[in-house]
C-alpha cells in the first residue's frame, strides 16, 4: 500500500489530503481496535497538555508514565519490539530531565520561530540518550510536543519519502521530517508535519485494504462533495482488508542491522 502514499505525496490539492486524513480513525481501529483508539486519545491529551506551555515555561517535561503511553501507542500502531525492559529501566528523573532538555531546545508550540536542522537534531539526540529509545520513539514524543515541526517516523512514511533502504537512523529521520515539513507548508491551512505523516500512513493502510484511493484523474475533476470521485471508500468488514507486515522478526536484524544501538 505504500505506493498509494507515494502518489498522495505528489498531490497538492488539500481536498484529497483532508479526505484521506478523515479515514485515519478507521485505520487505527482496524489496526489496533479499541485499545489503539484509547491510546490515540491518551496521546492527544498529552499533546494538548504540552501545547498550553508558554514560551518562558522551562519546566515542561515528559513523565515516565507518559513515555510508556507514547511507546505503547507506537508499538500498537506499528509493530511491537522487545524493548520494554530497557525502556522501563529509565528512572522518572532520567525521562523528565532528558525531555526537559529536548523541549527547551525546540521551544514550545506557541513559539513560532523557525527551527533549524541543528535544533531538530539536538532535540532528537537528547531523547535518544534514554535506554531503549531510538529516533523513531523520539519522534513519537517530539511530534506530540511540536507537531508543527516533527513528524512521526512510521514505517510507511519512511518507505514513501526516503529514497534509500529503510532504516531507523537519525539521518533517515531528518530526511523524511524535512519532506513532511515541505508537504505541510505546500498544503497550508493548519497542516503540520505530524498530520502529513498520519495522512500518508492512512493512505498506505487504506490501499492495503484493496481500495485504490489516490486519484489518477486531473485534480480539476475532483469534487470535494463526492467521496466516490476520489475513491474514498472503505468496508471494515471486508475480509480482504488486511494490515501489512513489512518484515518479520526473523529478518528484522537483516533489514535494520544494529543501527542506533538496536533502539527504535
Question: Can you characterise this structure?
Answer:
The chain is mainly alpha-helical and 264 residues long. It starts with a helix and ends in an 8-residue tail after the last helix. The relative contact order is 0.17. Helix content is 55%, strand content 0%. The model is unreliable at 217-261 (pLDDT under 50).
Number of distinct beta strands: 0
**Low-confidence spans: pLDDT under 50, at least 5 residues?**
217-261
Which class of secondary structure composition applies to the elements? mainly alpha
Helix content: 40-55%
Shape: globular
Straight-line N-to-C gap: 23 Å
Strand content bin: under 5%
Number of helices: 12
How is the topology of this model organized?
Elements: H1 2-9, H2 14-21, H3 24-51, H4 64-77, H5 84-87, H6 92-106, H7 117-127, H8 135-145, H9 155-161, H10 170-187, H11 193-208, H12 252-256
Helix pairs in contact: 1-9, 1-11, 2-11, 3-4, 6-7, 7-8, 9-11, 10-11
Amino acid at each position: 500500500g505504500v505506493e498509494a502514499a507515494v502518489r498522495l505525496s505528489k498531490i497538492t490539492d488539500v481536498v484529497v489530503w483532508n479526505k484521506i486524513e478523515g479515514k485515519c480513525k478507521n485505520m487505527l481501529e482496524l489496526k489496533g481496535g479499541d485499545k489503539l483508539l484509547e491510546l490515540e486519545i491518551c496521546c492527544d491529551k498529552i499533546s494538548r497538555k504540552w501545547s498550553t506551555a508558554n514560551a518562558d515555561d522551562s519546566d515542561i517535561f515528559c513523565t515516565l508514565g507518559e513515555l510508556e503511553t507514547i511507546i505503547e501507542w507506537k508499538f500498537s500502531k506499528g509493530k511491537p519490539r522487545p524493548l520494554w525492559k530497557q525502556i522501563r529501566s529509565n528512572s522518572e528523573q532520567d525521562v523528565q530531565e532528558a525531555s526537559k532538555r529536548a523541549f527547551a531546545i525546540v521551544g514550545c508550540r506557541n513559539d513560532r520561530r523557525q527551527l533549524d536542522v541543528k535544533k531538530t537534531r539536538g532535540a532528537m539526540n537528547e531523547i535518544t540518550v534514554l535506554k531503549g529509545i531510538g529516533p523513531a520513539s523520539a519522534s513519537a514524543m517530539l511530534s506530540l510536543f511540536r507537531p508543527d515541526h516533527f513528524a512521526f517516523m512510521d514505517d510507511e512514511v519512511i518507505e514513501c519519502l526516503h529514497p534509500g533502504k529503510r532504516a531507523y537512523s537519525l539521518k533517515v529521520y531528518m530526511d523524511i521530517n524535512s519532506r513532511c515539513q515541505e508537504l505541510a507548508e505546500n498544503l497550508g491551512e493548519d497542516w503540520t508535519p505530524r498530520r502529513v505523516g498520519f495522512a500518508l500512513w492512512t493512505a498506505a493502510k487504506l490501499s492495503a485494504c484493496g481500495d485504490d484511493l489516490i486519484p489518477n484523474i486531473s485534480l480539476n475533476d475532483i469534487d470535494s462533495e463526492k467521496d466516490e470521485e476520489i475513491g474514498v471508500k472503505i468496508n471494515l468488514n471486508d475480509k480482504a482488508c488486511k494490515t501489512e507486515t513489512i518484515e518479520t522478526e526473523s529478518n528484522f536484524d537483516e533489514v535494520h542491522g544494529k543501527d542506533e544501538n538496536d533502539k527504535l
